[in-house]
Amino acid sequence: MAFVDFANVYEMTRTTVEKYPELEAYRTIVTPDHSESVTWRQFLAAVRRVGKSLMALGVGHGDKISIVSYTCYKWVLTDVGAESVGAVTVGIYHSNLAEDVRYIVDHSDSVLVFVQDLEQLAKLLEVRSRLPKVRKVVLFQGEHEDEWVLSYEQFLALGDGISEAAQEERIRAVGPADVAAIVYTSGTTGVPKGAVLTHDNITWTAQSVQHCTVMHPGEVQLLFLPLAHIFARTCTFTALLTATTTVFARSLDTVAEDFKLARPHWFIAVPRIYEKVHAKVLAGAEAKGGLALKIFRWAVAVGHERGEVLLAKKPVPLGLRLRYALATKLVFSKIQAALGGRVKWCISGAAPLDPAIGRFFHAAGILILEGIGMTENTSFTNVNRPDNYRFGWVGPAGPGIEQRIAADGEIQFRGRNVMREYYKMSEETREAFTADGWLRSGDLGEIDAEGFLRVTGRKKDLIITSGGKNIAPTAIEGVLATSKYINQVCVIGDRRPYLVALVTLDTENVTAWAKEQGISFESFAELQQHPRVQALIEAEVAERNAKFASFETVKKVAIVDEFTIANELVTPTLKLKRGPIAERYAQVIEALYAGA
Question: Based on the number of CB atoms within 10 Å of its own CB, is 126 exposed (0-12), middle (13-18) or buried (19 or more)?
């Protein structure tokens, strides 16, 4: 494909605005009955106003600004506005603790910080004395009486005295090799590293993504993943390129309702979201029981039969088409309606998706395209295509992206999507690349004759048992997590004689099961330690162990409290922090190996 060599993100944005000025660009769901929208023309005007206000505050070419906020319109507006005048955006998770926020703001040399609300502002005020480089903090929502703090309205008013000519001069000075963003890895180990991404990284990657997935002007994406993570950010840049309408969910708690309000054509999510929807659908069918459950199972079987025909790229026979139409009417239409009723496809990334989950949604008429990327390559290297996909594989590389498997099995990449460096971390930058300039992914995998990539595990997560067997735990964890009673799984076994697992429970389904069984309990904490619950989970694990070789089976299980962002046992994208988990539950793990 032919790539357009945009000078910068602003030029890419302005090109879209010139083509589709009155199309809806962004929509914010305020309440179920009220949304606020802006057109592409209005967005560009707002971007220019943000740029002028940054200039008025003395933000220069290459200066950094941080954003500590949930995903929202002002996040994107501030991001593009900053990049338009050559400033560099640094995203910070709104779930981060004050000390984590301080580290990134300070390490990135940010001179301004934008925060969601007073709750996020409190984190900055707590560490204010240790942020000497920060000139001002700007609130997206609310006001605070302090000369250090501006409301967003006060901030926007500052730019009124900046001339159009002065702003255009700043915009023209921004080139493709200039830095647009520093994206800090959420990190399962060690301190966060800031991947330095250029304007060319961003505009080029957006085009590669568009070639693979094909988004059309005016189509709708629902966005609810954090913009501090590059996965969601790249989707917003691709929307800038394609004139896709982005609808912002109110929060993760309202996503189910927001799907029906937004009615997206496509969306992105991490595997945990798909797993939860899958578990909820199964639990609902089983709760109905009787004829309804039989119809559900029949429909899923028909869906799988049709799915295999589609995967083989063969025409669906008339009889199967008729049966599938009935299955859709009776069962699948309800699942599709829950997602708004017009989803063409959705993307799963940031962690491995269990193939069984992908096949289930495919059976239901919802195509999940699994892909892969890293912060260090602008979140994108591979994705399955709407017309060429497999489950358990992350698809071919995007146009212009090279992939290879090293001698030790590591997947490595090269392309214009790859970062320049880690900010102020020269040693870590050297370690990230091979001697001949390829980016190390840290993933293990294989590439077939058609260029499809399959990820088999993480190099650093690889378990080597005391018997010398090499085991990738993520695949096992994904299969065990298909149980409707299991929420999360962390498999342990490095240098041990066998595998064990720490399991957290699905509160809703386990509670419902306990009530059906007549088990009395005062609290969920009490219930999760009940012998019958332990037996239930052991039975669920034993059933799924049948899918593995003997050395891959989980021999013992311990039920523990949920791994959360708050207790620092998962990252903001819900990846397990294996080291902290093993440390937190060291005694529990030792008990599982007692007598081994």
Answer: middle
168 Cβ contact list (under 8 Å, min separation 6): none
Q: Are residues 51 and 163 in the same domain?
A: yes
- Within 13 Å and on the Cβ side, how many CA atoms surround 136? 18
Strands of the sheet containing 266-269, edge to edge, are 34-39, 24-31, 245-248, 220-223, 266-269, 345-348, 368-372, 382-383
d(CA 424, CA 232): 25
Residues 238, 316, single domain; the answer is no
Q: Is residue 216 part of a domain?
A: no
Name the domain count of the chain: 3
Helix then strand count (H, E) for the chain reads: 22, 25
pLDDT for the residue 376: 98
Q: Which two tokens stand for residue 60?
A: 């220069």
Residue-wise pLDDT tens digits, 342-353? 999 999 998 889
| Whether 44 and 67 share a structural domain | yes
Whether 161 and 291 map to the same domain: the answer is: no
Phi, psi of 60 (to 5 degrees): -95, 175
Backbone angles phi, psi at 67, to 5 degrees: -125, 120
Looking at the structure, tell me whether residues 406 and 434 fall in a common domain.
yes
What token pair was written down for 436? Answer: 């001949």
Number of other residues whose CB lies within 10 A of the CB of residue 62: 12
Q: Domain range holding 139?
A: 9-207+222-249
Record the pTM. Answer: 0.88
Give tens-digit pLDDT for 578-595.
989 999 999 999 999 987
